[in-house]
Amino acid sequence: MPGRVIIDESNTFFYGETNLEGVLDLVSRSKKPVQELAWASIGNVLTAIQICEAHDRGVLVPWNSWRHEFYKPMGTLHDADRGGFIFAPEVGLHENVHELDFSSLYPNIICTRNVSPDVIRCDCHSDRDDVPGLGYSICDDRGYLVDVLQPIIDARDEIKAAIRHEKERDDPDEDRLAELEGRSGALKWILVACFGYQGFSNAKFGRIECHEAINAFAREILLTAKQRLEAGGWRVVHGIVDSIWVTPDPDVNDEDREDLQTLATEITERVEIRLEHEAQYDWVAFVPQRESDAGALTKYFGKVAGDDDFKIRGIEARQRSTPPFIEDVQRDCLDRLDTTRSPDAVLGRLERAIDELQAGNVAVERLIERNRVSKPLEGYSQNTQNVAALKRAREQDLAVHPGQDIEYVVVDDEKSSRDRVALAHEEIETYDASYYETQLVRAVESVLSPLGWDRTDIRRELSGERDAVLSSFGASNELS
Ligand SMILES: [Zn+2]
């Protein structure tokens, strides 16, 4: 069809994650046709950009099949790449927290440290120890991966500057902003992917030693930053991948504490990668892993300074399956924690919600759970709520395919038959109050667990047996 391009919106990664400008930007870099790029995976596009670079350099491209399944959302990537992680979050509620982020850490490591498959562990400098702790050499010649990524980093920095500039204008052009954001987003995906991609031994241009080297440099950089921040009077409460979270060290006088911006500039110069002040929070709470005292890497919530909003990661209010009623109660609990710092105030909200539930006063629409169906009904071996919902859908001749959502209200969680749930579109008369109560308690547990509470404590308090424990609580925690 000459002069026309068709993008299948139901089957496109980049178009869905960015926008048309983002797709077109990548088309120009990868020389892939628009239609092909729209359904391509990140790894696929990255490989295409690398092939262009290899072609320009006259390098032969290995003739292996590449993996198409390389697609992970950003969160999964960060979780999987724990290699770069060092400082576990300190469980608890911390007042006055600043988040500092290294700008495009992994791609910048590749470019500033010359990490590239063609130059790592070179034969000509095999006696050298260029990668901290690994004993790998890195050749003095510039690696091709640097040539691939540097233009993308530069382009993204330029786009980000243009975005800042546009936002500072009295009357920002929203269309132009959307275009710029789309292009920046597309490039960010490529930059994020370039690191994970090195971990695939059968990726066309991947090499596991590069993956290890990037991690080793990242650890060294984060450690350097941590030491400098601590020497400047700040305490590191969390550090993951490319972010560091600090709070004023209580053992240091305010007049002895160095300015965070000055410290960030100094660290930037030392490690040759920009450390940016990302956000300030009135407080941040890191949530422990369930059944453990260790902090979960990606579960936290905090109050953004000078903003009415919370930043929430990994807890119920962020999960798309959570019913609106549970989400609303959890957000109310965050509000109460913010204004009072009092577990009692939070429990008061929980009690009211439970009363509402038990009295049958919650509208069923607010109790709808939305779950992604991962396989056909026959593929499930256990009797989950999803299975009950799928059986109900089949009974009503409704087709629900893997990848689609199914929406239901839990009617009687004790049942294993299809009467366990009712589908969202059905006439629903009742709900399982005790099931939803359990969900509520879990959601409130997430809010109070940084303060040392678990669901047993919450239950005990609800039934009025916790007075003794409660009075000793204030002394053992950093709450005033
Ligand atoms: Zn060499």
From TrEMBL:
One of its GO terms (biological process) is DNA-templated DNA replication. One of its GO terms (molecular function) is DNA-directed DNA polymerase activity. Coiled coil: none annotated. CDD domains: POLBc_B2 (cd05531). Keywords: DNA-binding, DNA-directed DNA polymerase, Nucleotidyltransferase, Transferase. It holds the Pfam family DNA_pol_B. Gene3D superfamilies: DNA polymerase family B, C-terminal domain, Helix hairpin bin, Palm domain of DNA polymerase. It comes from the Archaea. It catalyses: DNA(n) + a 2'-deoxyribonucleoside 5'-triphosphate = DNA(n+1) + diphosphate. Residues 81-450 form the DNA-directed DNA polymerase family B multifunctional domain. Its EC number is 2.7.7.7. PANTHER family: DNA POLYMERASE CATALYTIC SUBUNIT (PTHR10322), DNA POLYMERASE DELTA CATALYTIC SUBUNIT (PTHR10322:SF23). This is DNA-directed DNA polymerase. It comes from Halopelagius inordinatus.
